[in-house]
Write a structure and sequence with these properties.
The protein has 21 helices and 20 strands. The longest helix has 26 residues. Helix 12 packs across helix 13. A hairpin with a 2-residue loop joins strand 8 and strand 9. By secondary structure, the protein is an alpha+beta fold. The two termini are 32 Å apart. The strands form six sheets. A six-stranded antiparallel sheet has the order 10-15-11-12-13-14. A five-stranded antiparallel sheet has the order 6-5-4-1-7, with no helix packed on it. Strands 18-20-19 form a three-stranded antiparallel sheet, covered by helices on one side.
Length: 648
């Protein structure tokens, strides 16, 4: 059960090693921290003369961005589960808030390579910055806003309403209550609700903007500006504004446009009042086009603030240094194809150009004989033409641009465009009306402009280097660091001698000392701080994958597979903690090593079914692979993880 620490802004809650004030104090919690109590207070009497106090054992959740694994005993008088109306208005602490947004990004990205709805911390921070009151120099970047809107209880750093929060609660509180209503008013807790809503808005907007039947280039990729509009004015009105703009009717005044989709006069009046700064200049309503311009400028400014915050407080989200000179073997294939198109004056309207476009498409889907959009096919062709190892990195359904957002193993950020390595994969939002999105390779930064040039296919019906894209239109910048496995786990794979171990309920598994080391480090990165059952269940999932050859045939291959266990992602702070982890580093490392050694031997406890091969964190929206699997079945809830079998 989750509680809040502290009764007012000045409170600090001591955490003790034992159920006694005389024991070692292991931490001091600031007010507003969320704690997960693991034992009922009534069953936890004190020690050494402290029997008159109720105690609770808890872990301060790593998911909330503290970066620490705090375990200990706290007097229950210092924590509470208040009604929503009784929650104090805690201040936003920038460092913790930024790291919590980073944790939300890593959690959604860690949901799996086939998930296309990851949320970046930059956008969450930009959203909160936009909702902060108009700022003077030195004012806070992020504010825990009171419920001061007209006719709405929207509050907190993201101004989330009770109704929207309950939608988040319904999604994560399936069989067990995880999130409570009072958490809406806690800045760090609200981060995960905002991440859920951003994903929800993007998906709902995409559904409305994607024509039926599905276009050849896949579903519409909702931009961050689209998502922001959904939050500011609602999904329906946001799509209506988008349609007006695409149809050349952006000169319509916003109040007239809203009247066409909001029937309730009171709701309309409140919205126009609450968002007057965006809807008006002076006393006059602006056009839909001007609304787009104002919100776009504001989002650009907020992104700059957000990125500065990440550099200051969560630098681990930044890509590894030195990628500017990194090698992209697939780029040589792309350059060679460009020369053919350029020198031959080819286009995709017929002849050799059309034949080449079909060849690219067939590299992604051999059954395709004709298709208008072929940018994803060009990327696929270049990767497969580089080396056989890169062919394995091609995403599912590669002809859809949206499916490339989790390619590779490194997310880059458009802080400095010149730092993007040539050959990085760029996924954009729709660049023209009626399009769904685009995927191509980074070629160069444009001097004096916040734009980049893309080398890609289906650019004006050709392979060109001349498509210029503003950085605000970039959905993802992805990179494949093929040194990751050797850098992160050079001592885990290769030279160690393997041994065949007979494991219960399955065929023999070949496991080496290196495999056990990899497994222990993965368990530490994924599940330290969880109960023993929780850690063993993660080990069950890994061993189930090894037995069924999902994402690898050895323990190390499964653990280190691309975009599977997020603790190995380059931008996950866990990676630095586990790369050189040894058995005796701390009590939790000893437990993870003990469980890893037992997991590859007969008699290891099984807490999930033999077909359970997936899990995700309970504080995020269920990933696509759950929602899109008709036979998905929950097999275990333990700690912060939810385990599933039957995933397609």
């Amino acid at each position: 059960m989750r509680f809040i620490a502290g009764k007012n802004e000045a409170d600090f809650t001591p955490v003790f090693e034992q159920k006694s004030r005389n024991s070692k104090r292991v931490a001091r919690l600031s007010s507003g921290a969320i704690v997960q109590v693991e034992e009922p207070p009534a069953a936890s009497p004190g020690q050494d003369g402290d029997d008159d106090h109720e105690w609770g054992f808890f872990v301060e959740e790593q998911s909330l961005g503290t970066g620490a694994e705090i375990r200990g005993w706290v007097e229950m008088k210092h924590i509470s589960r208040p009604a929503a109306e009784d929650v104090p208005l805690f201040a936003v602490r920038d460092g913790t808030f930024v790291r919590t947004c980073a944790r939300a990004e890593i959690a959604t990205q860690g949901a799996g390579e086939d998930d296309s709805d990851t949320i970046v911390a930059d956008f969450l921070l930009a959203w909160a910055n936009i909702e902060a009151p108009k700022q003077e120099p030195g004012d806070p970047k992020y504010v825990n806003n009171p419920a001061d809107f007209k006719g709405s209880d929207a509050a907190g750093p993201f101004r989330i309403t009770t109704q929207a929060w309950r939608g988040y609660m319904e999604a994560v509180n399936k069989d067990v209550s995880i999130v409570s209503e009072f958490e809406r008013l806690l800045p760090n807790s609200q981060v995960f609700g905002a991440a859920f809503l951003a994903q929800f808005y993007a998906e709902e907007f995409s559904k409305l903007a994607t024509p039926t039947p599905m276009p050849a280039d896949g579903p519409f990729i909702a931009s961050y500006l689209n998502v922001l509009h959904c939050h500011l004015i609602g999904v329906g009105p946001a799509f209506h504004f988008h349609k007006l703009k695409d149809d050349g009717k952006g000169s319509e005044l916003v109040n007239t446009a809203l009247a066409g989709v909001i029937a309730d006069a009171g709701q309309m009046e409140n919205l126009l009042s609450d968002r007057a700064a965006l809807f008006k200049v002076g006393d006059e309503f602006v056009t839909v086009e001007k609304f787009y311009s104002k919100t776009s400028v504001r989002l650009t400014e907020a992104f700059k603030t957000a990125r500065a915050s990440i550099i200051e407080h969560a630098e681990y989200l930044m890509p590894p240094k030195g990628l500017g000179g990194a090698n992209a073997p697939w780029l040589a294939v792309a350059e060679s194809e460009f020369e053919d198109w350029h020198s031959g004056g080819l286009t995709d309207t017929g002849g050799i150009g059309r034949a080449k476009a079909i060849e690219y498409l067939k590299s992604g889907d051999p059954s395709v004989n004709n298709r208008v959009a072929w940018c994803g096919g060009f990327v696929t062709f270049c990767l497969k033409g580089a080396t056989p190892s890169f062919a394995a990195t091609v995403v599912k359904a590669p002809l859809w641009a949206a499916n490339w957002v989790n390619w590779g193993n490194t997310r880059l950020r458009p802080f400095q465009l010149r730092d993007i390595p040539r050959g990085a994969l760029i996924v954009t939002f729709p660049l023209v009306a009626g399009a769904s999105g685009h995927v191509a390779f980074f070629h160069s930064a444009i001097d004096g402009a916040d734009k980049i040039a893309l080398l890609g296919g289906n650019q004006s019906g050709k392979v060109t280097k001349s498509l210029h894209v503003h950085k605000n239109m970039i959905r993802e910048i992805r990179w494949l660091d093929d040194s990751e496995a050797s850098e992160g786990a050079s001592d885990l794979m290769g030279a160690l001698m393997g041994s065949t171990i007979n494991v219960d309920d399955g065929p023999p598994i070949s496991a080496s000392e290196g495999d056990v080391l990899t497994l222990a480090r993965t368990l530490y990165g994924e599940a330290r701080g969880e109960s023993r059952i929780g850690i063993e269940a993660v080990a069950n999932v890994i061993m189930n994958r090894v037995r069924t050859k999902l994402r690898g045939t050895t323990v190390s291959e499964v653990c280190l597979a691309r975009q599977q266990f997020s603790c190995w992602n380059l931008n996950d702070p866990n990676r630095a903690k586990i790369r050189n982890l040894q058995r005796n580093d701390n009590a939790e490392s000893r437990l993870c090593f003990e469980i890893a050694e037992a997991a590859v031997r007969p008699g290891f406890p099984t807490h999930v079914t033999a077909n359970t091969r997936h899990y995700f964190a309970n504080y995020i929206r269920p990933p696509n692979w759950v929602r899109d699997s008709p036979n998905a079945h929950l097999t275990l809830r333990e700690g912060v993880h939810i385990f599933y079998e039957g995933i397609a």
